[in-house]
Amino acid sequence: MTSPHSPGSQSALRQRNRQSVVHALLAGGPATQAELARTTGLSNATISNIVKTLTRDGLAITEPTTSSGRRALSVRLHGSRAVAAGIDIGRRHVRVVLASMGYEVIAEEAHALPLGHSADEGMEAAAALLGDLVNRAGIDRGAVIGAGVGLPGPIERRSGTVLDGAILPAWIGTSIPEAFGELLGLEVLVDNDANLGAMAEIAWGERQDATELIFVKVGTGIGAGLVIGGRLHYGALGTAGEIGHTTVDPQGPFCRCGNRGCLETLASTSTMLESLAPSTSGAVSTADIVRRGLAGDSATLRVLDDAGFVLGRVMASLANFVNPQVIVVGGPLSALGDALLEPIRRGLVRHAVPVVGETTQIVMSSLGDRAEALGAASLVLRHAGLSPALRSLLDGKQVEGFTARQP
Amino acid sequence: MTSPHSPGSQSALRQRNRQSVVHALLAGGPATQAELARTTGLSNATISNIVKTLTRDGLAITEPTTSSGRRALSVRLHGSRAVAAGIDIGRRHVRVVLASMGYEVIAEEAHALPLGHSADEGMEAAAALLGDLVNRAGIDRGAVIGAGVGLPGPIERRSGTVLDGAILPAWIGTSIPEAFGELLGLEVLVDNDANLGAMAEIAWGERQDATELIFVKVGTGIGAGLVIGGRLHYGALGTAGEIGHTTVDPQGPFCRCGNRGCLETLASTSTMLESLAPSTSGAVSTADIVRRGLAGDSATLRVLDDAGFVLGRVMASLANFVNPQVIVVGGPLSALGDALLEPIRRGLVRHAVPVVGETTQIVMSSLGDRAEALGAASLVLRHAGLSPALRSLLDGKQVEGFTARQP
Fold first, then answer.
1. Hey, are the CB atoms on A356 and B239 less than 8 Å from each other?
2. Residue A405 has what pLDDT?
3. pLDDT band at residue A157 using 50, 70 and 90 as cut-offs
4. For residues B196-220, average pLDDT
5. Are the CB atoms for A120 and A180 separated by under 8 Å?
6. Biggest CA pair distance of chain B
């Protein structure tokens, strides 16, 4: 407790309540006063008072909005004195976003990376891009309170080490918080791409209202991020959401995991490219699948249909088990829209129990290839209560604000 | 707020803290003071003070125990002034337990019900048995603060209505809280058998430490209850845990749900009985499967092996998705022990991603056919904060206790 007040005092109580509101805004992004009351358990009157002092102190701004058809006041943390970096690293790219405490994107850029790049190469490219964005945006480097990093594939939760089975073999064994943290001089949080995609959907996407959401990333690998009760679900070891190795056909193709007939052997983008090889000449890329699919190429549509149907079948199991409000499909194929979503939906409805098939919404991510970097930035904002930089900023303001009003 | 104190006062704060501790003990059963501190977020000193006043008021008792190898004090709510009833109704039986606030079984009994009994018959049998147990235990009828009811199959969460697809066709459309509540003159809570089994495992079973647990009931139907973060997970509609209709073989037998090759068509007790018919003479019952399996009958072991392996395969998908600490297998076959657990484990390890297969514990329930009734009683205790009877008992004590000490 860094408070100068005795723990039981009225001013300490007010300070705790104010912290609750700030943390709710950091964790969930802009919210109406009614939503803040629900999240924090504080009364509407208390919320209204706290929002007034936050606005007065220049820490928040309010904007009129509508919520459930009624006029309401949306509250957003304000200013770029505290900024979160989101870094997304893939097999061939690095993307960095800078986001404000109020979930506004301040700067964003992606660069290509060579296939098979080393961890050092990738991290240096990310650090250079981050430095560049900070400079160009005219932000004080000290305002960057931390960096979130997204990587495809499994990550050991306690140490943040990239595990075997990752899509980036040259990164296996690297402790991301340690190595990246040292390079950047920042606190670094790390998570896999599917979890960050899920986080991005509830923080930045079109389903910010959802408390039960599943994000499925379909790419070279296939993974899911599970939001349960409004929070990411990690499970006992942190490996929750592993859907790519669901056995679909016990006699199917052998998988890199050592099993047979896993979903990834039937519906990853690599499998789709292999399936397209006999009917096409020359190399085909994931971008080609999107282009040809949208152009109505029949071989491509057949491949998407088969892959989508089996994706839908596995999503049906997942939906039966977890009963989400919505499943969001992300990854490099999301621009395909209905060409991929339609067979997925067919597979889902065919294999789910009727009430689940009928009520589970299924949509394409509107965040496209920005999802992971945005999710990584919100990871930092969500944990910003831990950041000394932000805490001193808020606590300073806070104590000052309240001591000025002390009776 | 029923408190006579102003909301911000010290005494109101103490009262809220005391309520938190009582609710934690009701919701989770007996706990050490350290566990109570973790659950409530209160300091060890505050917990210790509250436990002293609860003991002084006769509302709790403490017993020495060991926790993580160290000596500790276990706190348990005390007395039978507030008692929860747990009622489990199956196709052929009704079981009632009476449990104290301190999670002690005061009385328990099961009676047979005719196959195909009506909802009224079942409810009247349960009411008679409950009345009988209350009388014999010498408990004041007014001390029964509510009844939890467990039924096999899906239940509409908001209204507590038995849905189509339930194992008890004569009960479909019955609103359990309404019909049962009127008959018993009690607040009635209802849930399905698999959810109550999961709740029983964390409240009464051997894995009370688990926060990520899956209970799988294998019977005429197959269902799962998911404990996530120490709480039952219901999902958007309350249908979470539906594993019986996972598609295992898209060309498999047609299922009562209208789909094909669902887990239930391959591994329910009904399917096992059908599979045994060609190799046995006369009618075979679920109890016969247990007896013959334990006696080493080769046809029975083969049926159990096939069913267990496919159960393990579906549990592997579930474990991949949710990453639990432990899967507990319950239902009428749990007495089979390794004869069923071994093929399930083989199926799990074969089909799960390696780290999940290696670390997910899988055990048979030690609660046997008592699981649902015990879970139903703990459902009442968990929600007892809502019960006017219990609230007046606790609040009375509480205000009295504190006013006596008011400075």
1. yes
2. 25
3. confident
4. 92
5. no
6. 80
Burial of A212-226, coded b for 16+ CB within 10 Å and e otherwise, reads: bbbbbbbbbbbbbbb
Question: In this structure, are residues B43 and B36 in contact, taking their beta carbons and an 8 Å threshold?
Answer: no
Q: Residue A160 — left, alpha, or beta (φ > 0 → left; ψ -120 to 50 → alpha)?
A: left
- What is the reported pLDDT for B316? 97
pLDDT exceeds 50 at position A148: yes
> Chain A: residue nearest B211 by CA?
A236
The two tokens of residue A296 are 């109505």
Which among A236, A259, A355 is the nearest to B325, CB-wise?
A: A236
Cα–Cα distance for residue pair A87/A109, rounded to 1 Å: 10
Alpha carbon distance B232, B241 (integer Å): 10
Length of chain A: 407
Q: Provide the shortest C-alpha distance from residue B341 to chain A (in Å).
A: 20
> Closest Cα of chain A to B360: distance in Å?
9
Nearest CA-CA distance, residue A72 and chain B, Å: 26
Q: How far apart are CA B9 and CA A185, in angstroms?
A: 45
- Cα distance between residue B71 and residue A176, in whole Å: 39
User: Is residue B137 within 8 Å of residue B130, measured between CB atoms?
Assistant: no
Give pLDDT, residue B398: 39
Stated as kind and residue range, the H or E segment containing B134 is helix B119-137
- Nearest Cα neighbor of A311 from A244, A404, A369, A211 is A244
DSSP string across B215-272: EEEESSSEEEEEEETTEE--TTTS-TT--TT-BS-TTS-B-TTS-BSBHHHHHSHHHH
Residue A388 reports pLDDT greater than 80: no
Query: What residue ranges define each of the domains in chain A, with the CATH number in brackets?
Result: 10-79 (1.10.10.10), 83-192+376-386 (3.30.420.40), 206-366 (3.30.420.40)
What ipTM, to 2 d.p.?
Answer: 0.85
Our CA-based measurement puts residue B194 at a distance from the nearest CA of chain A, in whole angstroms, of: 12
Q: Token pair for residue A267?
A: 């519906």
pLDDT tens by residue, A45-66: 999 999 999 899 888 999 888 7
Residue identified by tokens 């501190």 is: B37
Q: What is the dihedral of CA B225, B230, B232, B237, to 10 degrees?
A: -120
B156 Cβ contact partners less than 8 Å away, ≥ 6 residues apart: B162, B163, B238
**Residues in B touching A247 (Cβ below 8 Å):** 313, 316-317, 351
Asked whether the beta carbons of residue B239 and residue A324 sit closer than 8 angstroms, the reply is: no
At A349, the amino acid letter reads V
Q: Show residues of chain B in contact with A228, CB under 8 Å.
A: 228-229, 233
pLDDT at B399: 31
Chain A residue numbers with beta carbons less than 8 Å from the beta carbon of B162 are none
Instruction: Count A/B contacts: CB-CB distance under 8 Å.
Output: 133
CA distance A370 to B3: 51
Cα–Cα distance for residue pair B235/A229, rounded to 1 Å: 8
Confidence band, pLDDT 50/70/90 cuts, at residue A12? confident
Phi and psi, residue B267, nearest 5°? -140, 10
A8, A236, A245: residue with CB nearest B320? A245
Give the model's pLDDT for residue B7: 54
Res A401: pLDDT: 27
pLDDT at residue A4 above 70? no
pLDDT of residue A400: 30
**Cβ(A22)–Cβ(A55) below 8 Å:** no
Please give the Cα distance from A127 to A145 (Å, whole number). Answer: 15
Looking at residue B73, its pLDDT comes to: 86
Identify the burial level of A140 via C-beta atoms within 10 angstroms of its C-beta, where 0-12 means exposed, 13-18 middle and 19 or more buried: exposed
The Cα A235–Cα A241 span in angstroms is: 9
Tell me what the mean pLDDT of segment B307-315 comes to. Answer: 98
Residue A84: helix, strand or coil by DSSP? Answer: strand
